[in-house]
Design brief:
- The structure is a single chain.
- By secondary structure, the chain is α/β, with parallel strands linked by helices.
- It has a domain of 246 residues: Rossmann fold.
- Helix content is 45%, strand content 16%.
- It contains 22 helices and 16 strands.
- Helix 7 links the parallel strand 6 and strand 7.
Amino acid sequence: MLYKSTRGKAKYVPSAQAIKNGIAEDGGLYMPESIPSLSIEDIRALCPLSYPERAAKILALFLDDYDKDDLVLDCKAAYSSENFSNGVAPLVFLDDKIRVLELWHGPTCAFKDVALQIMPRLLSRALVMTGEKRRALILVATSGDTGKAALEGYKDVPHTAITVFYPANGVSRAQKAQMITQDGANVNVCAINGNFDDAQTGVKNIFADGELADRLSKKGVFLSSANSINWGRLVPQIIYYISAYCDMIEKDDISLGDTIDICVPTGNFGNILAAYIAKKMGLPVRKLICASNENNVLTDFLQSGTYDKNRIFHNTLSPSMDILISSNLERLISLAAGEEKCSMYMNALSKHGKYTVEPQILELIQKDFEGYYCPEQACLDTIKKCYREHSYLIDTHTAVALYCSDFGKREGTKTLVVSTASPYKFAPAVAKALGLCDKGGDTELFERICELTKVPIPSPLSSVFKKKVRFDEVIDKDSMKDAILRFTESLA
């Protein structure tokens, strides 16, 4: 299987080359030239398998230039009980209709772990497969969770290094503490004066800088990414939707072939796009519910067909979704409208900050997607209500999804709500929602929440505020290129 650019102006490449490159030559994102099919019988065959076994079989459909036995080894290593002690993607039955897919039982207590435990292994193999001798420098822009998960996944991986940029005032205290205390000889973390969109735009500009690429290449370094713009980050996310459907069958919750809805808290559109690809493969999904916070640019787009980032940016209680430029929407646009129109829309977004798709394209998208958003107070109220009615503790992002899932309900259809982070990662907001004092340090808040709810504090978070700070640099958003050059010099 070959991979093409969403903008149609780059050559087709095998999956290993796409994962190594990260982004296509024309600035577009890689997509498979065709999406493989998954029949009902294929789904039946996956049901009795373990998560690593399911993962290897699904990855093999997309990464057919990789050795299947290698994929099995990598999946077993990535999704081991040491990395995911409570299971990779367990289901919680909240009520008769809602099933919560918990994706935060990995090393950093966020859903990004599921992809970023396997992705470095895929990249390492890609370097060998493509004959690459240079070191891969992974660039990451993060709104909170990707940064730590990528740092943890790539730390001390041979022939790689990683730099993470995050908005100085746009992540939770726990997220920041996880990043600035990261260990590993090949890691680097920089805060920027700006928001996530500034960080993401800066990373994209660095990728587009041919002069910089030449300078780095002469030093034996090339750039790649760990954000979901990289297909190697996105393809592992497809797995857990298919696996969750299999688990619902195994638990006699649904019958093979029954349709479900999937509701995903969404910022950069990668997680819900993975669910859409699973649906395109043949997973029986009725609707994909795109849940946003008050940065509701995606809600407006899915309802009106106009994507307009020219609006007030809100720092919310769900900071991992505080995004106005949703990069992975480009992949959906390319599938719905074709590469030529996608390129036109992306140029308009770059120049004017907005674009409007034709009515027939919007209608096509709305057959699969619904978009809603959750106000700040409703987020807190949902956390409180969920704990009061179900004795189940959720974080702010899961609360956004749970709130929005109500709008898309259909009689007889069960909804899979994606839970993306441990509630302890956003302790101040969770404490406030529960009526606890939200003042003081996170360690104190952890203890208050634990005392009330009896929900254990995850071990990766319990000691993070006691670790030594390694990275305290804050830079201007226009200085990201200089930061990369300094870090590269330190690697020599």
